[in-house]
Amino acid sequence: MPDLIKQNYQQTGGSTNTNALGMRAMQERAYAARNAQYLLLKSPPASGKSRALMFIGLDKLRNQGIRKVIVAVPERSIGSSFAQTDLMKYGFFADWSPNDAYNLCTPGSDGSKSKVSAFVNFLDNDEEILICTHATLRFACDQLDEAEFTNCLVAIDEFHHVSADGDNRLGMVLQDIMSKSNAHIIAMTGSYFRGDSVPVLKPADEAKFTKVTYNYYEQLNGYEFLKSLGIGYHFYQGKYTSAINEVLDTDLKTILHIPSVNSGESTKDKYKEVDTILDSIGEVLSQDADTGVITLKRASDGKLLKVADLVNDDARQRDKIVNYLRDIQTPDDMDLIIALGMAKEGFDWKFCEHALTVGYRGSLTEVIQIIGRATRDSNNKTHAQFTNLIAQPDAANEKVTGAVNDMLKAITASLLMEQVLAPKLKFGPGPKGDDKPAKAGEIKVKGLKKPSSKRVEDIIESDINDLKAAILQDATVQKTMTGTVDPEVVNKVMIPKVIQEKYPDLTEEEVEEIRQHVLVDTVLSPAIEHVGNKRFVRLANKFIDIDKLEIDMIDKINPFQKAYEILSKQVTAPLLKVIQGAIESTRITITEEEVMILYPKIGAFIQANGKEPDINAFDPLEKRMAEAIIFLKNRKRQSMSNG
Length: 643
Prior knowledge:
The protein is an alpha/beta fold. It has 4 domains: about 15-215, P-loop containing nucleotide triphosphate hydrolases (Rossmann fold); about 220-390, 3-Layer(aba) Sandwich (Rossmann fold); about 425-585, no CATH class; about 590-643, no CATH class. The protein is built from 21 helices and 20 strands. The strands form 4 sheets. The protein has a 9-stranded mixed β-sheet, with helices on both faces. A 6-stranded parallel β-sheet has the order 4-3-5-6-2-7. A 3-stranded antiparallel β-sheet has the order 18-19-20, with no helix packed on it. Helix 3 (about 115-120) crosses helix 4 (about 135-140), helix 15 (about 485-500) packs across helix 16 and helix 20 (about 590-610) crosses helix 21 (about 620-640). The model has no long low-confidence stretch (mean pLDDT about 85).
């Protein structure tokens, strides 16, 4: 199948150039907010979050009265990102110099007595920097009073591991530290979406954080080598291992993530899956005893490939290959990494060209982390690719509804990435009679409401991608991607309901203001095209002058039309009918709000076709209008019987 998304970049170098202090653009932006007690840093993989923390941490130690810096990472392997770094040679006032004795990201249990004791001792001695895992931080806090973190900076890398869920121990630890001490907090993440199933922070806690965002488009557009990114999906039938070679190109440096053993795509034998994948490529010749690298002879031409198996649970074997991967210097050092739970967040293999994932991932955060493995800038590639290999729905399979849901969720992740990767634009109302062209980077939309409160402004400015994630993960919204729901129902009924659920404190007018901005940003940001000096948007297969946009026009556009177009063109008619049938079987009862929107369209349909919509029609929208007529007739019948 073709890519659902193809984004091109201008290679400006803006995200890699440094200022007089040795800071890249994202780091400079973060450093400007260094005085904040609570700082939330959202920026993509490879943007330099670890070094940004070093700059801010050193300033807090030297200039803000902070006595200790504690860095907590999710995996031991990520601890190396915070090792000794010479910053003074680039113009900064101090070097980052942690004592190796207080780098607790070493082999052994994260809750071992020695690591916990070292953590506790650190708070009482003169050392300034400690690096540990999230788990070690949790275990240490079991023996500490949170007040002991007074005048300390606690930095949480990959912050989405924190959760407002009452069972999330890291979240509870963080809440206790914030409530019982004056500790400073820096939260860092490459993909922070409150649209995931459990919020990362409670709204009251999140409001305390100063947010610094460096978006994906800024990062990738400012690279030196990377020109484009493609995101697509591919269906398979039967076992995925028999279809893997349809999408696995071993000429590309690839990370292959096989499915969880608990998923429907898994054969339940992960080791056999790895063996089958290797056998489908060629012949295993050897495995290096010192590094764990597997040498594979490709069947097609005899080329020797280097493979890393991160699925193997043997701790000694895994440590060998992880250490090897950490020291990779050239593209020739590795060709293929096969992983299950590893090689996602914080994993740095800049030469990776293709992230291939089998099966739907339940978290948008996880999907975006995986994509980030392939989007580092490197001189061996000009294009990065993410491919999701997912099971094709089968009408004969009793699990067809689950397969359809997984497929729609996979497409959802791609649509969200399209939004995240698009250039950030500013939208404003275009007053009547104002024919002046919009400024560069600004789009006027006639009828678009201005934010009426600071709260609405902040949501539009900082949280719009989080809100899009929540909308796209709504089960009812996802079912609209097959063209079965009128666009105005999506835009005026379904989307406002999600906004109201996420922000229950907003007034009806504020919800409408946010709804309009979410809609124009979703529809327009990825759709702008340049023809000479004019800008156009492609809406419903028509090119429209960008200076003539109106909110009423956009309200009639399905914001997920692109997904439906891909589906309807690339799957067979019988398969599309299976997909739509599975959705129909679980559809919610038609609502009065939807009927009110469909009512005038029914009249137009009857006038144009000389008949009422048919409940058995193949066209899903005609069928939905017929359901609306049945609803109205039932309502009239009930009214007469009650009258």
